[in-house]
Amino acid sequence: WGIIYWRKPQFREEMRKLSIWTMPFGLTEPLFVPEYWSPPSLFGLASKTGFDVESLLFSFAIGGIGAVLYRLVFPANLSEFEEHEKQHARHRLHRVILFLPVAVFLVLAVFTRLNHIYCSVIALFLGGVATLYCRPDLKSKIWVGGLLFLGLYAVYFGSLLLVFPDFVDNHWNLAALTGIKTIGIPVEELFFAFTFGLYWSGLYEHLFWYHLKPVNSLSHA
Predict the structure, then answer these.
(1) 194 burial class (0-12, 13-18, 19+ CB within 10 angstroms)?
(2) Is residue 94 a contact partner of residue 134, using CB atoms and an 8 Å limit?
(3) Are 194 and 86 contacting, i.e. CB atoms less than 8 angstroms apart?
(4) 158, CA 20 to 30 Å: which among 78, 148, 150, 204?
């Protein structure tokens, strides 16, 4: 996060906004401890209280990275919606779709016995797909953004396992999950990474009414 923020000043505003917006989701950690995992944490806070500082920092970091990762790989600029564009029929559900993942997660968490990681994955996936209805112009950014974040997360997690090969076995509640691993990573982590990237990659443009304009198309305009 810090390297991107330092080297790419054009992304700083959206990184700040989305990181700050995402950071409070770290407070949901008690929903996942110990049902999903029991992470090591500073002063053992996670095991004692369910809360930890690391979850807040993690949420902060992935919020900013997830928002700009696509544009790091495929350079593009942002242009604001015209007021008349906002009146299109498909945008009547703008706010509903923005908060759909939260609503879906709460319904699944309250009315089903699913592990909360599955509630998160389903909620994020449906949020990403619903965004496509409101913002079909973001189709490539949403799907490719999901894959890019999945790839980045797999590299990050894989490098962690090179240093701590027993990390998953020691801290994940595999008995409550599928138990399936890909390159040593619980498949649930990969599902989360893809669906988070899927929803988050288009969130800034959707939330603040921006079009995505590839740099090449602007230079030839």
Answers:
(1) buried
(2) yes
(3) no
(4) 204
- Rounded Cα distance between 188 and 172, Å, is 11
Output 53 or 176, whichever has higher pLDDT.
Answer: 176
Instruction: Tell me how far apart the alpha carbons of residues 203 and 207 are, in angstroms, rounded to a whole number.
Output: 6
What is the rounded distance in angstroms from the CA atom of residue 157 to the CA atom of residue 39?
14
Query: Average pLDDT for residues 23-44, to the nearest whole number?
Result: 83
64: tokens are: 């900013």
Per-residue pLDDT, averaged over 155-174, amounts to 95
Q: Which amino acid is at 168?
A: V
Please give the angle made by the CA atoms of 75, 24 and 172, to the nearest 5 degrees: 90
One-letter amino acid of 53: V
Whether the pTM exceeds 0.85: the reply is: yes
Written as one letter, the residue type at 98 is L
SS3 211: strand
Do you find a cis peptide bond into 136, omega within 30 degrees of 0?
no
Convert the pLDDT of each residue in 74-92 to its tens digit: 999 988 887 777 777 777 7
Average pLDDT over every residue of 31-45: 80
